[in-house]
Specification:
Blueprint: H1 2-22, H2 41-47, E1 52-55, E2 67-72, H3 80-91, E3 95-99, H4 105-112, E4 117-119, E5 122-125, E6 135-140, E7 154-157, E8 161-163, E9 166-171, E10 175-178, E11 195-202, E12 205-210, H5 218-221, H6 229-237, E13 242-246, H7 257-267, H8 269-288, H9 291-296
Parallel strand pairs: 1-13, 2-3, 2-13, 3-12
Antiparallel strand pairs: 4-8, 5-10, 6-7, 6-9, 9-11, 11-12
Helix pairs in contact: 1-8
Length: about 300
């Protein structure tokens, strides 16, 4: 009898551990496994409704056609072999969207031969969404591009600005690059319109640059309906029939060692089935031990 209790206790512990593993998240900025305000879990949930693919090896892009590749918040410089893979992706007539502010986006742009450049310094504006001059309001230009279809205003937070390329969205005239980070305009800071979304044709493909990766985080997607952030994200997801999301160099996939183990385990089909089975076992046990079930008997 005692051995049965021991076995049951072990099974229950495993079931409880399965729940923790299966539902585990983290608190890292831009992480797809972070359900809090600064994570991107909601964005990745939205992509599940579209034909989307996570890219862990760039060789999977070799046969892509009529597709979008999203590079979201890269954190290291790109290797020549990676640049070649991205260049070939563009040559096939596809679209690359780079969302970066002060990361390594410029090394990527230079590598693929783009003229667009991300400017250092937080874009600040008197035309703000909230009581923070870094939460700027951006407006589409007259250039007609599908990515901004139905968009009237966007909110960006601590965005960079862009040089060159064709501007698709800009700040208002009452904006400046806050070089000293005091949120106030000084003599050395210039008022004017600054580009926050730009695009450029490269061969048969195109590159679109968004100067604020935080537009993908949960709190920015779920702003009030008077702002078009959620619609903009929807436009990105549906821009082409296929959406590839680069996970080879992105803060969205940044994990500590423990979380990497959890994510790896959850990615194995057999382990996922085991997790679900253990969870169902625990739920069944709790139900069978409940007074409601015992009274029914």
């Amino acid at each position: 009898m005692r051995s049965k209790h021991i076995i049951l206790s072990i099974v229950l512990c495993l079931a409880a551990t399965s729940i923790i593993l299966y539902l585990s998240t983290n608190d890292q900025d831009l992480s797809r496994y972070n359900n809090d305000w600064n994570g991107t879990s909601h964005f990745f949930t939205l992509t599940d409704r579209h034909l989307s693919y996570d890219v862990y090896n760039l060789t999977s892009l070799s046969k892509a056609f009529n597709s979008t590749l999203l590079l979201l918040a890269p954190e290291r410089n790109y290797e020549p072999v990676e640049i070649l893979a991205y260049s070939n992706f563009l040559k096939s007539g596809n679209t690359i969207i780079l969302a970066d502010d002060f990361g390594t986006g410029n090394s990527f742009l230079k590598g693929i031969g783009s003229n667009i450049s991300i400017v250092s310094g937080i874009l600040t504006s008197a035309d703000r969404a909230y009581n923070d001059s870094h939460s700027i309001v951006a407006y589409p230009t007259d250039y007609n591009h599908t990515i901004l279809s139905g968009i009237e205003t966007l909110v960006m937070n601590k965005a960079a600005s862009l040089l060159y390329g064709e501007p698709l969205a800009t700040s208002s005239l009452f904006s400046w690059i806050d070089k000293d980070k005091d949120k106030l305009i000084t003599k050395k800071e210039i008022l004017g319109k600054y580009t926050v979304i730009a695009f450029e044709k490269i061969g048969d493909g195109e590159i679109i640059v968004i100067s604020d990766p935080s537009i993908f985080i949960n709190s920015m997607i779920n702003l009030e309906e008077k702002w078009d952030n959620k619609k903009f994200i929807s436009n990105i997801i549906s821009l082409n029939p296929n959406l590839y999301i680069d996970q080879t160099n992105s803060k969205t996939y940044k994990l500590d060692t423990i979380n990497k183990i959890f994510v790896y385990l959850k990615s194995i089909k057999e382990i996922k089935i085991l997790f679900i089975g253990m969870i169902l076992f625990l739920l069944a046990y709790v139900f069978l031990m409940s007074p409601y079930f015992k009274n029914k008997k």
